[in-house]
Specification:
Elements: H1 3-54, E1 62-68, E2 74-80, H2 87-97, H3 99-108, H4 119-127, H5 134-140, E3 144-146, H6 156-159, H7 163-166, E4 172-174, H8 187-200, H9 203-218
Parallel strand pairs: 3-4
Antiparallel strand pairs: 1-2
Helix pairs in contact: 1-5, 2-3
């Protein structure tokens, strides 16, 4: 084997070792955050339940949904419920009756002034407390603290060529798109940002995302969708 070939092999081994260290440390960080965060889940869940009862909503405070995880495998995703119980039915009714809303949802996969969000839900979203149950997903290994958005299975077709790149990583509670200052970006632009994260994830990028998320939460702007 030539010296040039040996250099290439050594380089590949070095890169592989750095990646393994990165993923190992990242998983340890995820477990630490999840264990600490889950201790807060019970008292906060009690407060959220009381708030919902006060507003006349006696339904479950938890929201579960199938989401796309790493390598395209689906998992049960947990959040505090921020919408009315029959949110999907109301969404499809609104989209069928309002062309402007349908256009907005097609471009962004979300609505700026979503009529389905409850009074309690607005507070939960503004403080990012609705994300807290996702720590259970982090603990289980379905998600990471930092990664791409956990997409809904019906969005797979819309993700197109970006799908295989985005699902290389575990989805995260927060991520590059959320802190990039492009929270109102189109769905297409969001996919490009998340593809960038999948191909460039590193300790430095994760640290930047973590502190930008922390700043956003403290400022009351929320962190992730």
């Amino acid at each position: 084997m030539s010296n040039e070939a040996n250099v290439l092999v050594d380089k590949d081994i070095h890169i592989g070792f750095r990646k393994n260290v990165y993923f190992f440390v990242k998983r340890l960080f995820d477990l630490l955050c999840a264990l600490v965060g889950c201790t807060l889940l019970i008292p906060i869940a009690l407060i959220v339940k009381i708030f919902y009862i006060i507003t006349g909503d006696f339904n479950s405070i938890f929201f579960t949904q199938k989401r796309i995880g790493q390598y395209g495998e689906e998992f049960n995703f947990f959040k505090f419920r921020t919408m009315v119980p029959n949110a999907d039915e109301i969404l499809f009714e609104k989209l069928n009756s309002d062309k402007e809303l349908a256009k907005e949802y097609k471009e962004n996969k979300k609505l700026k002034n979503d009529p389905r969000i409850t009074k309690a839900g607005k507070i939960l979203r503004r403080t990012s407390l609705d994300e807290l149950p996702q720590l259970i997903n982090v603990l289980k290994g379905d998600m990471s603290m930092i990664g791409n958005r956990p997409y809904i299975p019906r969005e797979k077709r819309d993700m197109g060529k970006h799908f295989s790149e985005i699902v290389k990583t575990r989805p995260g509670i927060t991520g590059y798109w959320q802190v990039s200052g492009r929270e109102n970006a189109s769905f297409k632009k969001r996919l490009e940002l998340e593809k960038y994260y999948s191909n460039n994830q590193s300790f430095l990028l994760d640290i930047k995302i973590f502190f930008k998320t922390f700043k956003a939460v403290l400022g009351g702007h929320g962190a992730a969708e």
